[in-house]
Amino acid sequence: MTRLKALSSPGSVVCLISVLIALNGCGGLGGGSKGPQQLTVTTQSLPSGTLGSAYSQTLSASGGVTPYTWSITAGALPAGLSLAPSTGVISGTPTGTAGTSTFTVKVTDSESPAQTATAQLSITINAAGQNPIKHVVIIFQENRTTDNLFQGLCIPPYGSQSACGTGQNQYDIAQSGKNSLGQTVTLQPACLGINSCGGPLPDVWDMGHAHRDFVLAWDNGKMDGFDEDIIFCPQGGQNCSPANPEYYYVQPSDVQPYLTLAQTYTFADHMFQTNQGPSFPAHQYIIAGTSAYAQQSGYDIAENPSAGNGVYGCIAPPAATVKIINTQTGDESQTVYPCTDHPTLTDLLDAAGLGWKYYTPAPGSIWNGPVVIQHICGPNQKPPNGTECVGTEWTNHIDIQGQNNDILNDIAAGQLAAVSWVIPHEKVSDHSGTNDGSGPSWVAAVVNAIGNSPYWADTAILISWDDWGGWYDHVPPPAFFNAYEMGFRVPLIVVSPYAKPAYVSKNQHDFGSILHFVENTFGLGFVDGDQYADARADDLSDCFNFSQNPLPFKQVKAPLGPGHFLNNTEPPGPPDDD
Fold first, then answer.
1. How confident is the model at residue 3 (pLDDT cuts 50, 70, 90)?
2. Cβ partners under 8 Å of residue 333, min gap 6
3. What separation, in Å, do the N-terminal and C-terminal C-alpha atoms of the chain show?
């Protein structure tokens, strides 16, 4: 390093000053008090966007005096996007048509007088990624609400309290609710099934979930009448339930596979049962968007049937009946034989030449939607004298799979249909008072079978529950469409390589949304014009991003593996008929 020697004379000082001025200019050693640097737009290009997908990019500048103000001085942003003047953020959801928009941005600083700078930029909007889904699997579990089944999303170590609330990406799950006495009841833990699960009560009781019970629990939107429903005990039992049995939740360890799926993929916490009644009509809604007694009749099947000796639909004994409800007045005084005929989603699939399959535990079960539709069942004698479904639709598409093995075997054999409905039997269902707690493992087995197969690349798995089962939930139903629609909240999990990851859908969905998604995916149109729930519901589009990189499959851990179900030879029990 060169050091300056001590100056010993005035002449030396003058000489040094002259040198420094020459080096630094007239501004002196520090350059003096220079003005702000020249204002410049530093953003040189903007990424492309996709029609229908959220877009957000921040413009940047340097120099001048902050804060900056931004504007568009020539051209225009793509439709659906806007520029925030104070932040320089271009955001929105592109609409209209694909193409490139060129525009000039101007930035103005806060100096007086102000500096300005401009830059010409462009944004290309691409067409939305085409829906790559070729297979839809609808798993229709039993009788749970969101507050009852997914409390674990809020409870460490399975979830966290901060994950739950009313925020945009929080799970809307409550830990307490009001009963008919005006008391605040804290929800308590219980086992999922009838077997002991270490600590909490085994769920040996069942609760009423007929239309009457809906009306009582709803209580004109106050959601405080759940404790007024009927309690069912095992045959011969009584006093089997605790106080306020409706205000219990499933302990998280019993439903870990469900929690994993909800946290990994899309969980819809504003999914609602379309109808206000039990399983028999709900299983008709999931194939047709209605439980109409006849096409455009103004009457819906409202309840589970009676006097069928465990066999229902178009092969029920002649004495079997079911209540129907006038969808305008709410009158439920009439009964009919539990066999109907009207259009269904399967008719559209047939017309389009698409394969479909309905896996169900028993031919005449109340958890069997197609057995109620005469043109699908094709009974061997005209109702009410039929004893067996023998129609072509039935023999080609209805799989009486007993132990729920066939869906696993079909996936392994490369025989998955374009659309599959998968219905559990009694023990692998989540139904109160009858299941053995294996339902989450069974669902995980189906998901893992698809995820570990070539089908993962183009499959959407939609997991929902057919009704509320009498359990408490704090979210009131949306505005009623008629005297029998809409119902209480039930969970929905969307599993797919194109499901939005770790996403909480706040959009309103119902069973019609599932049908609408299938219809849009395969270009089918609606089941019966604008008459049924599919035409009124959304299409689950907010749950998917077909432009994202496909999600790799992650094995879902479960207490029971697929071998438990594949090797089980125990005959399935009948579903509930309460």
1. very low
2. none
3. 96
